[in-house]
Design the sequence.
C-alpha cells in the first residue's frame, strides 16, 4: 500500500510504493504506467535533493520523462535517462546513510526484464523514504 512521507522543505512529499505493483503495472499497462512513475520518482528525488542542498538528485523530472518517451525513438536519451535515474536512486540512498543498490544487478535486470528493474529501483527508494520517516534528515549545510 502506498504511504506518504514528508520531505523537509517540500510541499509534495514522497510515496512508498509496493515494488511488485510497480513491476506488474509496467507490464499490465503495456508500459503506459512507466512515464508517470518515472516522473514521480524523479520529482521526489529532486525535492529531496533541494532539501539536502544536493544537485546530484536531479532538478527536472520532465526532462527525464521526455528522454524515456520521445527520446526512446533515438534510443540513446532513454538509456542515459535510465542510467542517471538509477544513479540518483543510489545517491539518495547514500544521503540517507544506506548502502546503494547494485549497478551490475540493475544492468542485468534492464537487459533481461525491465519491469524487474523498475521494481528494484522502487525498493531502493522505499528504503530512503522509510529512513526519512523514522529519522528525518537534517538539511545539509
Sequence:
Amino acid at each position: 500500500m502506498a504511504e506518504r512521507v514528508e520531505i523537509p522543505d517540500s510541499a509534495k512529499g514522497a510515496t512508498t510504493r509496493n515494488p511488485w505493483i510497480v513491476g506488474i503495472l509496467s507490464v499490465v499497462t503495456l508500459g503506459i504506467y512507466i512515464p508517470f512513475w518515472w516522473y514521480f520518482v524523479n520529482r521526489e528525488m529532486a525535492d529531496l535533493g533541494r532539501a539536502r542542498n544536493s544537485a546530484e538528485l536531479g532538478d527536472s523530472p520532465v526532462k527525464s520523462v521526455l528522454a524515456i518517451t520521445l527520446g526512446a525513438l533515438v534510443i540513446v536519451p532513454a538509456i542515459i535517462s535510465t542510467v542517471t535515474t538509477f544513479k540518483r536512486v543510489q545517491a539518495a540512498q547514500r544521503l540517507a546513510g544506506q548502502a546503494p543498490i547494485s549497478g551490475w544487478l540493475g544492468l542485468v535486470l534492464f537487459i533481461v526484464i525491465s519491469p524487474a528493474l523498475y521494481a528494484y529501483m522502487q525498493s531502493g527508494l522505499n528504503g530512503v523514504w522509510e529512513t526519512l520517516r523514522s529519522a528525518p534528515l537534517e538539511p545539509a549545510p
